[in-house]
Amino acid sequence: MSEYAPIKSNTCTFSTVGDSASSTSILAENKRRKGASIVNTSTAILYLRMDGGTATATTGYNVPLIQGGYFEVPFGYTGAITGIWASDAGGAANVAEYT
User: Fold this and answer.
1) CB distance 23 to 82 below 8 Å
2) N or C: which end of the chain has fewer CB atoms below 10 A?
3) What is the CA radius of gyration of the chain?
4) pLDDT, tens digit, 9 for 90 and up, residues 47-80
5) CB contact at 8 A, 45 and 85
6) Which of 68, 78, 76, 59 is nearest to 4 (CA)?
7) Sequential DSSP letters for the chain
């Protein structure tokens, strides 16, 4: 038997972040965040950085997302997320944040 109660949310905020070949904010720090997901709709690879620092496509990232790639933000992470695309291809990141 688990002693932990499941995390529940009834609020979702959806946003779209246009692709950019420069480091850009994907999600701001949010202490009330219970979860989040990111989908890359661009044809260019999206490189995510989980500490809010400057994302780069070489070594300054934690998660690469190909076109159509889906990422669930790790449980309990409320910090900022930045990203950079391999090129500005006219796509976006679809972001859902649950509070």
Assistant:
1) yes
2) N
3) 14
4) 999 999 999 998 899 999 999 999 999 988 999 9
5) yes
6) 76
7) ---SPPP----EEEEEEE--SS-EEEE---TT--EEEEEE-SSSPEEEETTSS---SSSS-SEEE-TT-EEEPPTT--S-EEEEESS--S-EEEEEEE-
Residue 34: both structure tokens together: 């219970």
pTM reported for the whole predicted model: 0.90
